[in-house]
Write a structure and sequence with these properties.
With 96 residues, the chain is an alpha+beta fold. 24% of the residues lie in helices and 52% in strands.
């Protein structure tokens, strides 16, 4: 007996803070990539397609789909924001 099927896996791509389009609250907006995988004996073997991107508000939990090019821009902006935040943390304190 061969057991096969599919499973959807979610990966966090990035997080940015801005106003939610659904609730209007300024909160963390998380971008997730969902991919469906073919499984054989419950082991993921290969993915179907490129997957899809979903933007989720941390405040209201609302979700909306995002096109691939928008998701790539979001991920780049999230990386820049994280790098700027880390650089700001490592700066020596200023003398007053």
């Amino acid at each position: 007996m061969i057991i096969f099927g599919s499973r959807t896996r979610t990966a966090l791509v990035g997080v940015l803070f801005f106003a939610c389009a659904l609730c209007g609250s300024t909160a963390a907006q998380r971008l997730h990539r969902l991919r469906t995988w073919f499984t054989l004996f419950f082991v993921p073997v290969f993915p179907f397609g490129h997957g899809r991107y979903v933007l989720q508000c941390a405040y209201c939990g609302g979700q909306s789909s995002m096109p691939r090019d928008g998701a790539e821009r979001f991920a780049a902006d999230a990386e820049r924001a994280q790098a700027a935040h880390l650089a700001q943390e490592t700066l020596p304190p200023t003398a007053q």
